[in-house]
Design a protein that fits this description.
The structure holds two protein chains of two kinds. Chain A is mainly alpha-helical. Chain A has a single domain, classed as Fumarate reductase/succinate dehydrogenase, transmembrane subunit (3 helical TM bundles of succinate and fumarate reductases, Up-down Bundle). Chain A is 69% helix and 0% strand. Chain A has helices at residues 6-15, 22-51, 63-77, 80-107, 129-154. The radius of gyration of chain A is 22 Å and the shape is elongated. Chain A starts with 5 loop residues before the first helix and ends in a 5-residue tail after the last helix. Chain B is of the alpha+beta class. In chain B, strands 2-1-5-3-4 form a five-stranded mixed beta sheet. In chain B, strand 6 (101-103) and strand 7 form a beta hairpin. In chain B, helix 3 (110-118) runs parallel beside helix 8 (175-186) and helix 8 (175-186) crosses helix 11 (226-239). Classes of the chains: A mainly alpha, B alpha+beta. The A-B interface holds A 1-4, 6, 9-10, 12-14, 18-21, 23-24, 26-27, 30-31, 103, 106-109, 112-120, 122, 124-127 and B 15, 17, 21, 23, 73-74, 97-98, 100-102, 108, 146-151, 153, 163, 165, 168-169, 211-215, 217-220, 222-225, 227-229, 231-232, 234-235, 238-239. Bound molecules: iron/sulfur cluster (SF4) and FE2/S2 (inorganic) cluster. Residues 57-60, 62-67, 77, 79 of chain B line the site of FE2/S2 (inorganic) cluster.
Chain lengths: 159, 244
């Protein structure tokens, strides 16, 4: 019996949300943003920890040392590559938070339709207009956050 | 597409374990009419062009649930999908995703049915005599019936299981079909399984693993809406009554 490659399958289901409608896009974006935010958080803590001496934190470093590391870190990070990354992160954070509220509410059974006798053509009651609205509002908020951040870093819209 | 014959290209996934086991695609030209289903087109191939093609089907009317396959990338019933509705000159058919393949388009349902069975898909009564020997009839109001009847329409075709991204990455996840059937019995006013039923799916690979991608409900050919049953089941697990 053949079993198709599990890693390929996993990546495909995460990264190619085509064909299954809006909720599959919501699923993929929620997962990707979740992983990206966690990674950013870990790197962010690691990076800022350097300023106070990393693992040497308990033997409080001198002020000069902290200032030097801080300056080096800021210099290392201030390039267009990291700026663009932060703008994308703003998109992901806003989407994840706002769409997360929708998912959270559905765990309480809120925003769901009621079971009914299925009549063709079927409209799943698991996906209500209220939920769709929150999904699209999440996208709007995320795009606004992206544009705002891009403008801060690159002055693309307003001077 | 009119009532006249037209040609479509069927691109068919082929896999024969006795033949080195390397999957390939064969292409067949098949004459079709407006009302030709993908299943009829495949049967034409089997009868006229290549008798070694393996497919599974029975009722030809979306009732037995045995002809599920990936048709142009989506899980669908071959007997319930018209070639004309696909609006493409080439139609790709593959065995259902998330299932091992036995041969060609035939997927292995052993795990799938095992998960269904683990949900105890029958009424549980506390009285053991009644459970085994009962010939009592149970009364039910319309409201009580409406709570589960939608989920009782399931024909176990596995389309939802093939569409689910969580099944794809977690083999221990029972999947949308099994979970919706668990809810179907849990919420049935005649059932006394209660909390005992929820225990089966209360670990981290159970109902909490569902990420609510909703793809199951998009592809279900019977309008079962497994995603709804799963969210309601999750609410029961997190906040519901704990009996039994
Ligand atoms: S829930 Fe729908 S898609 Fe899933 S097995 Fe039942 S009938 Fe098929
Ligand atoms: S042949 Fe029975 S469902 Fe298609």
């Amino acid at each position: 019996m053949s079993v198709r490659n599990p890693v390929v399958t996993a990546l495909k289901t995460w990264l190619i949300p085509r064909r299954y409608g809006v909720m599959r896009w919501s699923y993929s974006l929620q997962r990707i943003s979740g992983v990206a935010i966690t990674l950013y958080f870990v790197l962010h803590i690691g990076e800022t920890a350097n300023v106070i001496g990393g693992s040497q934190v308990w033997s409080i470093p001198s002020y000069e040392y902290a200032r030097q590391v801080w300056t080096e870190t800021v210099e290392f990070l201030s390039n267009p590559f990291f700026d663009a990354g932060l703008a994308v992160l703003a998109f992901l954070i806003f989407f994840h938070t706002s769409n997360g509220v929708r998912l959270f509410l559905t765990h309480f059974g809120i925003l769901l339709g009621k079971p009914h006798r299925p009549e063709y053509p079927y409209h799943p009651a698991s996906m209500t207009k209220a939920q769709l609205t929150i999904f699209w509002v999440s996208i709007l908020l995320a795009v606004a956050a992206l544009l705002y951040s891009l403008n801060i870093f690159f002055k693309v819209i307003l001077p | 597409m009119s009532g006249k014959l037209q040609e479509v290209r069927l691109r068919v996934y082929r896999y024969d374990p006795s033949n080195g086991g390397r999957p390939r695609y064969d292409i067949f030209s098949v004459p079709v009419k407006k009302d030709t289903t993908v299943l009829s087109a495949l049967l034409y191939v089997k009868e006229k062009l290549d008798p070694t093609l393996s497919i599974r089907f029975s009722c030809r009317m979306a009732t037995c649930g045995s002809c599920g396959m990936m048709i142009n990338g989506l899980p669908r019933l071959a007997c319930y999908t018209l070639v004309s509705q696909l609006k493409s000159k080439t139609i790709t058919v593959q065995p259902l995703n998330n299932f091992p393949v036995v041969k060609d388009l035939v997927a292995d349902f052993t795990d799938f049915f095992g998960k269904h069975r683990a949900m105890k898909p029958y009424l549980l009564r506390i009285d053991t005599y009644e459970q085994e020997k009962s010939n009592i009839s149970y009364r039910q109001t319309d409201e009580e019936l409406l709570k589960y009847i939608q989920f009782a329409y399931c024909i176990r075709c596995g389309l939802c299981y093939a569409a689910c991204p969580v099944v794809a990455t977690d083999k221990r996840f029972p999947g949308p079909q099994a979970l919706s059937q668990l809810y179907r019995y849990y919420i049935d006013s005649r059932d006394e399984g209660g909390g005992e039923r929820l225990e089966v799916v209360s670990d981290s690979h159970g109902v909490l693993r569902c990420h609510f991608a909703g793809s199951c409900s998009q592809v279900c050919p019977k309008g079962v809406d497994p995603a709804l049953a799963i969210q309601l089941l999750r609410r029961e697990l997190l906040f519901g009554r704990r009996t039994g």
